[in-house]
Design a protein that fits this description.
Elements lengths: L1 H7 L12 E6 L2 E6 L3 H11 L4 E2 L2 H6 L14 E4 L3 H14 L3 E4 L16 E4 L6 E5 L4 E5 L4 H7 L5 E2 L10 H7 L6 H4 L6 E7 L5 E3 L16 H5 L8 E8 L1 E2 L3 E8 L3 H13 L4 E7 L1 H11 L8 E8 L1 H17 L3 E6 L2 H12 L1 H6 L6 E8 L2 H18 L5 E4 L4 E8 L4 H20 L15 H8 L2 H12 L13
Parallel strand pairs: 4-6, 5-6
Antiparallel strand pairs: 1-2, 3-4, 7-8, 8-12, 9-13, 10-11, 10-12, 14-16, 14-17, 15-16, 15-19, 18-20, 19-20
């Protein structure tokens, strides 16, 4: 009651005209950054307690950037929510005062999704770390916003189940919902869109609702609009995801990992297409070009052949694995593949895939002192070799380092440029390459981002990709967030 009175008390409510603002320059554009009035900070303390509100510069700086190349822009205050009710009251307070509200999970995004370009309040959800329920017999789990994928999988260890979506980082599961994450296992298990049954969401005005209805966790439904998938990939611009009901999958009886090198990119992709056409239930098919392989060798102390390579993983029973590996081995050899190495030993597999997951750090280590500029696209698999080859030609022509890594079973690939972010000329070249890569993908019936999201870096490409759907998206945004407080500046200008 005291908290609600604090929020309603007019001395804490400021019109937009009365809010202190300061003008900042963001990526060459002038922007107005809203400061958070002292009265609103006091109201936030009334909601979550003094120990869960911070205006310290170090905390604000931490919450003003993710793992991307985008420059830090700090929020005015960071609030650590501990419940959905907290998030609801924080949203209502910010909406009443027209103060920007930015959700923060683990900060592992790659398109500036948590950058506070307009200042405001960053709501950190990491303390909402409860695993609410696991229904092993129904293959689903209910989690709150702060639970990470590794935490859930550790909790599930004795159930024989797992949550398979693996973007590499130990991201929060609700953050993965917000960005529609996927990763190395998507060729077998799909992306977050296929593995979310229901979401608990807080809207801009503080309303709490469940996208499929409270407590619903059926594998399919024909009841009304698909609100769940509306919020998967919304990047915090429509509401804050505070809970999720997720599909679980059985842990396979046996797994095997393999790596095979090829003379050319085309031959590696041709092998991928043929493997999928044969109906082999691959768990992972990852592509690394020769630059990425060389980086992995140096960073992870491997001795792989420095050539375009496929990293593969098989799931199944012992006998089925042998048959799958044999068929894939034959297909790779038909396409010029050589040096086919595979292993079932847990340590060997772990080392191999750790090297794959560490590839961003390996690529960055090619230029000590630089930071990674990461971008991704996705195309129909029949267009993949053409797009990768043209991308490599553009990278070579520009004379920069740009290792290519791909989830080729999905037609998705990434380029990790190690860059000096303070070198304006170099950043201009890299951004130009990223733009060409995205436009090429769009021209080949693909998308400018398969995993990373639009965020800040690809806003100008969204309308080119979705056409008139862009205005439909803006109408939805306006309807759910009429005052524009939810993660402003992301997805749309």
């Amino acid at each position: 009651m005291l908290t609600r009175n604090l929020i309603r008390n007019s001395k804490f409510l400021y019109s937009k005209l009365k809010q202190p603002t300061r003008v900042i320059r963001w990526n060459g554009q002038v922007s107005s950054q809203v400061n958070v009035p002292d009265g609103v900070v006091s109201a936030l303390v009334g909601i979550v307690g003094k120990s869960n509100v911070s205006t310290a510069e170090a905390v604000r700086e931490q919450h003003g950037h993710d793992e991307s190349y985008h420059k830090t822009a700090m929020p005015g205050v960071v609030v650590f929510a501990q419940s959905t009710e907290h998030v609801s009251q924080i949203a209502k307070l910010c909406n009443d005062n027209e103060i920007p509200l930015i959700p923060f999970g683990t900060g592992t995004g790659l398109e500036g999704g948590v950058v506070a370009t307009k200042g405001g309040v960053s709501v950190d959800l990491t303390k909402m770390d409860q695993i609410v329920a696991v229904h092993a017999e129904d293959f689903d789990a209910v989690v709150k916003a702060g639970v990470t994928r590794q935490t859930l999988n550790t909790y599930l260890r004795d159930t024989g189940l797992m949550f398979p979506i693996d973007p590499g980082a130990d991201a929060s599961l609700c953050g993965m919902c917000a960005t529609s994450a996927s990763g190395t296992n998507a060729v077998c298990y799909g992306t977050m869109r296929e593995n979310v049954l229901n979401l608990e969401v807080v809207l801009a005005d503080g309303t709490v609702f469940h996208t499929a209805g409270e407590g619903r966790r059926t594998k399919k439904t024909s009841a009304g609009y698909n609100l769940t998938n509306l919020f998967v990939g919304s990047e915090g611009t429509l509401g804050i995801i505070t809970g999720a009901t997720l599909r679980l999958h059985g842990i396979p009886d046996a797994t095997a990992a393999a790596v095979c090198s090829f003379p050319t990119v085309q031959q590696a992709v041709d092998s991928t297409v043929q493997v999928l056409q044969c109906g082999i239930p691959m768990a992972k098919i990852e592509f690394l070009d020769e630059v990425a392989v060389d980086a992995c060798n140096k960073y992870s102390k491997l001795d792989l052949n420095v050539a375009p390579s496929l990293f593969l993983e098989f799931h199944g029973s012992g006998t089925s694995l042998e048959e799958q590996v044999s068929i894939v081995d034959d297909l790779c050899k038909m396409n010029g593949g050589g040096d086919f190495k595979w292993a079932t030993d847990a340590d060997e597999k772990s080392h191999l895939w750790k090297a794959r997951h560490d590839v961003v750090y390996a690529c960055t280590a090619l230029r000590p002192g630089c930071k990674p500029y990461s971008t991704d696209v996705c195309v129909p698999i029949s267009k993949l070799a053409e797009v990768i080859v043209k991308t490599k030609e553009e990278i070579d022509k520009a004379g920069v380092i740009g290792p290519i890594i791909g989830h080729v079973g999905d037609g998705n690939f990434h380029v990790f440029f190690p860059v000096d972010q303070d070198n304006e000329d170099e950043m201009k070249v890299i951004k130009g390459l990223s733009e060409k890569m995205a436009l090429l993908a769009i021209s080949k019936e693909g998308t400018c981002t398969g995993e990373h999201g639009i965020g800040l870096g690809k806003r100008h490409l969204l309308e080119k990709e979705v056409g008139s759907g862009y205005n439909v998206m803006k109408h939805i945004k306006k309807s759910l967030d009429p005052k524009g407080i939810m993660n402003p500046g992301k997805i749309f200008f």
